[in-house]
Give the backbone structure.
Amino acid sequence: MTIKEYVKQRKEEIKTLIDGMERKPHITIVQLNEDAASNAYVKGKLKDADELGVVATLEKLPIDTSEEELLSFIEKLNNDDSVDGFIVQMPLPKQISEEKVKLAVSPKKDVDGFHPLSQLAPCTPKGVMNYLHAENVQIQGKNALVIGRSNIVGRPMAKLLLNESANVTVVHSKTSPEDMARFIENADIIVVAIGKAGFLDNRFKYKKDATIVDVGISRDETGLHGDAIPDLPVLRQTPVPGGVGLLTRLALYENLLDIVNNK
Ligand code: GUN
C-alpha cells in the first residue's frame, strides 16, 4: 500500500469515528509567522480538519506579539474547555523563545507532542510507527537505524522503536563514515531525518529486504528532495514528496483523538 492510499483509508476511518461523536473535537492553531512554509503547513492542517469533521480555529497573532503576550494567550487556551488541543505553529519570531512556548502548552492539550511530559508522541515519529504497523513491518528483534538525533524526530523515533523491541542504533553528524556504512549495511529499518538531500545513495550497501523511511525534505530549484535518492535497492522506500509529510499531518489528528478519547 502506498502512503497516499494508507492515509486516505485512515482518514475515512477517523471521519467515521468523528461523525459518530456528538461533540466534535476542536483544535486551535496559533500562527504568528506568515512565511510561505508556515502558511502552507497551516493551510494543510485546516484542510485535513475540514475533511475529518474536526472543528478548527485559526488564531493569527501579529508578528510583533511579545513573548509575554503569547504565553498569556497560551494560558488562556490551556484553560478553555472548548479547545481540546492546540498547536503554536513554528518557527516563531525572534523575540519569542520556542522552548518556553513548548513548555507553556499544557501536556493535556499538546497535540504536537512537544512537551517533555506529554503522553503523546510527536507527530512525525508517531506517523512513521503507524505506517510501519499498517505495512506489517516486523519491528521486534530487528535492527532499526535512526539517522539524526533531533528532539522532534530522531530521539522520539528511537524511543518508539525501542518500545517495540527493535535493536535501535542512533547515528548522527559525529558518526564516522566507516561506522555509518556498517550500520546502514546491517539495518532492517532505516529512518533518515537529517535534511541532507540524497544522503542515502548508491555509495552504501543495503539489505535487500530493508525498509527506508525518508523524513528529509529539502527544496531547490528542481523541486523537493528526500534524504535518500529514489529507487534504492531495498524492499520498501517512502517517497518525497507524498510520503512521511502526509503521515505527520495525519498523526496530529490521531493525537487529537487520543486526547478526546482519554477525557
Ligand atoms: N512547523 C513545521 N512543522 C510543525 C509542526 O508539526 N508543528 C508546529 N507547531 N510547527 C511546525
Observations:
- The chain has eight helices and ten strands.
